[in-house]
Amino acid sequence: MYTVAAIFYLLPTAVIAAGWFRQQKARHLVAANDLWRSRCVAGFLLIVGCATLAGLASSLNWLSLGGDPHGMGTPDGPWQLLSRCFITLLVIGITLALLGKGKGRSLAIGAAFAAFFAHTAVVLVQMD
Q: Are 101 and 41 in contact (CB under 8 A)?
């Protein structure tokens, strides 16, 4: 199950990497008055990267403690704090991405949704 969780988190990681390379390539084309928007996208990519790591750590810890998808049998642990950090970072990141501009922004928002999908998919696969 740990391997499945890691495979699910490869998609958001790949999208974040693509967005980061796109952002770096377009950085020199940004006008001086739109520099803050470019920085918002770069900040978002950094935040969603941290959120993806928090989500992966949360999923792995949740699985190591039993991983009951109904929430009744899984004991308390770091996975609860990491899950809250994951969701909070995604909300902050999407807010920053909405302020951004360019194609990197669409990749960044796609990475946030992919990270949320990966976090949810681990729970759904554990149900079986």
A: yes
pLDDT in tens, 19-77: 888 877 776 776 666 677 777 777 888 888 899 999 999 888 888 888 776 665 667 88
Q: Domain boundaries in the chain?
A: 2-127
Q: Please tell me the chain's helix, strand, coil percentages from 3-state DSSP, rounded to the nearest 5.
A: 85, 0, 15
Q: How far apart are CA 104 and CA 73, in angstroms?
A: 41
Report CA-CA distances (Å) from 117 to 9, 34, 56, 112.
9, 31, 12, 9
Total residue length of the chain: 128
pTM: 0.83
